[in-house]
Specification:
The chain contains ten helices and 15 strands. The protein is of the alpha/beta class. The chain has two domains: 137 residues, NAD(P)-binding Rossmann-like Domain (Rossmann fold), CATH 3.40.50.720; 173 residues, Dihydrodipicolinate Reductase, domain 2 (2-Layer Sandwich), CATH 3.30.360. Strand 1, helix 1 and strand 2 form a beta-alpha-beta unit. Helix 5 packs antiparallel against helix 10 and helix 8 packs across helix 10. The longest helix has 20 residues.
């Protein structure tokens, strides 16, 4: 089978990561950036061509798929432009979020569906194997019914980059909003507060309480000294404590005796510590390749991208007006 030809649009931080992974898979055909010197630096590293126009990249390299890793505000317009002008493109990987607004997200999703182009929205945390393992444990009833879930996603972003990334809801929140739809669904109430930096919400707390009885709390920040990616899922029978960076899950029973030392790696049993391995971005790209080769549905598709933006808009509305917002959350399809 001939390997798909994939190009990258945008050679910033995420574009360079995608280039490294694609090159290791021998599927990187070319890179594009409006800053041609930046594109050339990446292209020279991997022995491919550099472009300053994405139409030229698609046409001259006869691409099967593209990865869009440009500033957030351009995601939807580039995706629609390519979809409307290039019949060769079978699939796209759009960096998160799918768009800056819910209206744009819905519009680009409709356009891509009409053109028959399958799109992956890079909520890469869903592809983190530790998240997949935790969701499996929850579905298997390992902790009973999920009750209280804390999502902690904090790091630091230079102030000069804040406007290109958008607010903290669309930049960080989409990852955990998507995870939430795979744990809790139905009618709920959302309340959010935020701290601004240069007029942009840069740190926030979001609370979502479901009529079914579960609740989620999100701590989102880009002004934290260090990086934290944690989840604490408490259920009726026990809890899962996730370190998404270290890719470790600790399983706790409600009646478990406290232990002075817990360093043993054991699979699901009382007090288990589960360690998994995998690079989320590589798994996202593997999904893109599978979509191109087989036409299968991606793990995170257009509906998931739009659903996450619906929660982003609700959080924005709540934070702006200081009000509680009623929402109805549907389960992710996969």
């Amino acid at each position: 089978m001939v390997s798909p030809k994939i190009g990258i649009i945008g050679t910033g931080n995420m574009g360079r990561i995608h280039a490294r992974v694609l090159s290791s898979l021998r599927m990187l055909s070319g890179v594009m950036d409006v800053d041609i010197d930046a594109a050339k630096r990446v292209a020279d590293m991997y022995g491919v061509r550099a472009f300053s126009d994405y139409h030229e990249l698609v046409e001259e390299m006869s691409l099967d798929g593209v990865i869009i890793s440009t500033p957030t505000s351009t995601h939807s317009s580039i995706a629609e432009d390519i979809a409307s002008k290039h019949d060769s493109i079978r699939a796209m990987l759009i960096e998160k979020p799918i768009a800056s607004t819910l209206k744009d997200a819905e519009h680009v999703a409709e356009t891509l569906r009409k053109r028959g182009i399958v799109a992956i929205v890079s909520h890469s945390e869903i592809y983190n194997p530790i998240v997949g393992r935790a969701l499996s444990l929850i579905r298997e009833g390992a902790i009973g019914t999920p009750k209280n879930i804390i999502h902690d996603r904090r790091g630091f972003v230079q102030p000069s980059r804040i406007h290109s990334l958008g607010d903290v809801f669309e930049d960080l929140g989409v990852h955990d909003f998507d995870i939430m739809t795979r744990i809790s669904t139905g009618r709920a109430k959302l309340y959010a507060q935020c701290i601004t930096e240069g007029g942009v919400c840069n740190a926030a707390t979001v609370m979502v309480k479901f009529e079914s009885g579960s609740d989620h709390v999100f701590h989102l920040s880009r002004q934290y000294a260090g990086r934290a990616r944690m989840m604490d899922v408490s259920g009726s029978k026990g809890a899962l404590i996730l370190d998404l960076f270290a890719q470790i899950i600790k399983v706790k029973d409600l009646d478990q005796e406290p232990m002075s030392e817990d360093q043993t790696i054991r699979l699901p049993e009382r007090g288990a510590t589960i360690k998994v391995y995998g690079e989320p971005v590589r798994e996202v790209i593997n999904d893109l390749v599978k979509v191109i080769e087989t036409g299968s549905e991606p793990l995170v598709g257009l509906d998931d991208g739009v659903a996450a933006m619906r929660l982003v808009e609700a959080a924005r509305q709540s934070a702006k007006n200081g009000t509680v917002v009623d929402i109805d959350i549907e389960a992710a399809k996969r």
